[in-house]
Fold this sequence. Notes:
Shape: globular
Largest sheet: 6 strands, antiparallel
Mean pLDDT: 89
Low-confidence stretches: 1-6
Strand content: 15-25%
CATH topology of the largest domain: Beta-Lactamase
Order of helices and strands: HEHHEEHHEEEHHHEEEHH
Structural class: alpha+beta
CATH superfamily of the largest domain: GAF domain
Distance between the termini: 34 Å
CATH architecture of the largest domain: 2-Layer Sandwich
Strand order of the largest sheet: 6-5-4-9-8-7
Amino acid sequence: MREKSSGDGTVGKALSVLDMVAVFGQPVKFNQLLEQSPFPKATLYRLLQTLVHQNMLAFDADQGTYQVGLRVVRLAHSAWKSSSLAPLARPFVDALAQQTGDIVHLAQFEAGQVLYIDKRKADDQFETLAQVGNVAPAYCTGVGKAMLAFMSPEPLQLALSQQAFHAYTPSTHKSVKSLQAELAQVRLEGVALDREEHQQGIISIAAPILSANNRVLGALSVATSTAHKSLADLETLKPALLRIAKQIGQEAQFWQPPT
């Protein structure tokens, strides 16, 4: 492939390769990376070698695979503690998971997407696609819609322009117009529902976490399986969800989200 120019030079190229490896979520072979890489074979190999030498990637010689290295794990843990809402919110997230018996997600907004920063579950009856460190679309997730609904106009317009509106399920929003109509309702009710919009069989109820001046800090959701509960069941959790989201917002009054 033809190599793309980058204003960030070698560092930017190396970080883009690191992102590619991380997105796979499992050990990945060189040829798999080459298929997605904007860089020529020799450049990609050189960047991978640099990342391995810096312990940003780990290379398994027996399997011929690359995966995220321990140095990245240490950096991620440091970032989680210093720039994430998660450590501060953990006691509240734990309490909500125990109270509901379902999965609780904590998320922040990043570049038009939802970044999951914590996940707690009371049992192993079911699983969701959301994992800590993963990103997901905002337009088809409960936490995403909860944050979008309470953004000020300018950030909201930017965020809406970043949505792809890919139809993950028959219930997924397919246009800005239909999403905006729901966001107006979310603002009135204070909570957002995920009606199997991102993952078939998984539903959720979500509330925004707001600062004292109503700045969106993140969102909290309770997710469950349609085999386990209904949307009506989830809506009974609204008072508890709103109360805990407000408590997290109050606890975070001196915490500054990354810009």
